[in-house]
């Protein structure tokens, strides 16, 4: 049985994971971490400070907030705990810190744990290569009104994938407010919509001369992120130190 420490357990995703795993005998949440430990009645202890947590575990899953980043990586490092990092809004510096730390513990990093978005990553890599510079590329994402970071981690991950497929320097342009100039051909526009209970939508628009291609992923439930995170936890629990992602998991690397 895989023993999990769930960071951000009293948040939306934390509670989805709790529900998702409750009838699964192969997984047990042994402890939770959260800024508001009393918010829910959980069937595991919840600590405000990771230093209070003494439970033994095989892996830590983090769906919390970028402000918790330092204490989560410190905790994972001290306890040599494989880490599934799902939180978004991390800085480039934080992403580099994850790379460095992955020399000491196995780390699984993905801004989107769904299977579908990771297939889209592959599709847009190939579309971008095929279309070369003849199409302008823009990304539009939409999420619920409780989301605190923008653009979404997924939109950034998609933009980096496009950039890696283009053999030139792409510029990420976040909206165009106040920009009194034409679009540059190397721009990748990234646009965020927030409202209601939208679970998550990502549309990659390829606009060419007299034709448009759109590749779109729509999340209909947060269960897809929970399922992916659990799969990731099982996958890295006994892996060598290193940085892992969905591509590696899907390719069984
Ligand atoms: N990778 C993915 O597939 C994926 C999917 C969904 C959400 N997310 C990301 O996961 C994160 C959480 O999403 P959510 O919708 O559950 O958010 P949420 O706001 O509902 O929950 C976050 C939880 O973290 C806790 N928290 C906040 N700051 C903290 C701190 N400094 N220390 C400890 N706990 C703290 C909050 O009390 C809350 O319970 C976000 O960054 C979101 O973008 C990633
Ligand atoms: O609900 C959220 O918050 C989500 N965050 C991730 C992101 O920022 O890309 C993944 C989709 C849901």
From TrEMBL:
UniProt-annotated catalytic positions: 143 (proton donor/acceptor), 147 (proton donor)
Q: Chief location of this protein?
A: cytoplasm
Gene Ontology CC: one annotated term: cytosol
Q: Locate the residues binding NAD(+).
A: 8-13, 34, 86-88, 110-113
Residues annotated as domain Dihydrodipicolinate reductase N-terminal: 3-113
Per UniProt, NADP(+) binds at: 35
Describe, as the record does, how this protein assembles with itself and its partners. Homotetramer.
Q: Which NCBIfam families match?
A: dapB
**In its UniProt entry, what is this protein called?**
4-hydroxy-tetrahydrodipicolinate reductase
Task: Record the organism.
Answer: Garciella nitratireducens DSM 15102
Corresponding gene?
Answer: dapB
């Amino acid at each position: 049985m895989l023993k999990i420490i769930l960071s951000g357990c009293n948040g939306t995703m934390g509670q989805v994971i709790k529900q998702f795993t409750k009838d699964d005998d192969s997984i047990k949440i042994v402890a939770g971490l959260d800024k508001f430990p009393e918010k829910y009645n959980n069937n595991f202890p919840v600590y405000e400070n990771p230093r209070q947590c003494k439970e033994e575990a095989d892996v830590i899953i983090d769906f919390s907030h970028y402000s918790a980043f330092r204490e989560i990586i410190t905790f994972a490092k001290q306890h040599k705990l494989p880490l599934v990092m799902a939180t978004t809004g991390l800085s480039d510096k934080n992403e580099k810190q994850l790379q460095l730390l992955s020399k000491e513990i196995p780390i699984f990093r993905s801004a989107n744990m769904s299977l579908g978005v990771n297939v889209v990553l592959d599709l847009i890599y190939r579309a971008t290569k095929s279309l070369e510079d003849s199409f302008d590329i823009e990304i539009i994402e939409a999420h619920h009104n409780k989301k605190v970071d923008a653009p979404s981690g997924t939109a950034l991950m998609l933009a980096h994938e496009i950039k890696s497929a283009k053999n030139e320097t792409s510029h990420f342009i976040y909206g165009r407010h106040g920009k009194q100039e034409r679009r540059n051909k190397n721009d990748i526009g990234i646009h965020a919509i927030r409202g209601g209970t939208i679970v998550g939508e990502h549309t990659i628009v390829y606009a060419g001369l007299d034709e448009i291609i759109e590749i779109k992923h729509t999340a209909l439930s947060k269960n897809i992120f929970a399922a992916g995170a659990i799969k990731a936890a099982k996958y890295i629990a006994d892996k060598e130190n290193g940085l892992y992602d969905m591509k590696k998991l899907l390719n069984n690397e």
